């Protein structure tokens, strides 16, 4: 596989994949630092869950739905949190489908390092908008994926919809 130069991923590779974390869990920090929702790209939060843009997206609009509970397995979460996770996932998919006019959505979770979890110690759901043809020549033949998105622009476009649909 050819490599696509992406120096911005260096911090992620060293802190998440190689386990060189400098302390607190990035998801736990979302719940302790409530003053920086925009800088952390948090679209919605309550006392139990948060919905945020993925800093390392597969496609533009790639969201994460994260419980406050720092657990590595979904069965360790209380039923009430599981319900909130699925409800927030469903609402988020509805917003993404409407606002991105995407052809489909992938959603799910990678539980454990062997399953591909970048942050295996804190469960979270992924929501990825998909478009007909988003796996094209470059991805198939070049075995590379280019993602050119402006996360701040996507955040500013989505935030009002999350405020309306989640907060009322």
Topology of this protein?
Elements (H helix, E strand, L loop, with lengths): L9 H8 L8 H7 L9 E4 L3 E5 L9 E5 L11 H22 L3 E5 L16 E6 L6 H4 L10 H17 L1
Antiparallel strand pairs: 1-2, 2-3, 3-5, 4-5
Helix pairs in contact: 3-5
Q: Helix and strand string, N-terminal first? A: HHEEEHEEHH
Major sheet characteristics: 5 strands, antiparallel
- Classification by helices and strands: alpha+beta
Number of strands: 5
Query: What is the typical, i.e. mean, pLDDT?
Result: 82
* Overall number of domains: 1
- Tally of alpha and pi helices: 5
Helix content: 25-40%
State the strand order across the main sheet: 1-2-3-5-4
Estimated share of beta-strand residues: 5-15%
- CATH architecture assignment name: 2-Layer Sandwich
Which class in CATH terms? Alpha Beta
Fourth-level CATH superfamily:
HIT-like
pLDDT < 50 stretches: 2-6, 136-145
């Amino acid at each position: 596989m050819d490599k696509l130069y992406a120096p911005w991923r260096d911090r992620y590779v060293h802190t998440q994949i190689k386990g060189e974390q400098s302390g607190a869990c990035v998801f736990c920090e979302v719940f302790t630092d409530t003053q920086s929702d925009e800088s952390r790209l948090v679209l919605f939060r309550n006392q139990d869950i948060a919905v945020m843009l993925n800093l390392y997206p597969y496609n533009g609009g790639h969201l994460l739905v994260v419980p406050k509970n720092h657990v590595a397995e979904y069965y360790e979460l209380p039923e009430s949190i599981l319900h909130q996770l699925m409800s927030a996932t469903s609402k988020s998919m509805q917003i993404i489908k409407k606002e991105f006019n995407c052809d489909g959505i992938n959603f799910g979770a990678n539980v454990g390092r062997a399953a591909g979890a970048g942050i295996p110690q804190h469960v979270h759901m992924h929501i990825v908008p998909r478009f007909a043809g988003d796996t094209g020549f470059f991805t198939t033949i070049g075995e590379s994926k280019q993602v050119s998105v402006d996360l701040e622009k996507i955040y500013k476009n989505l935030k009002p919809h999350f405020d309306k649909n989640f907060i009322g």
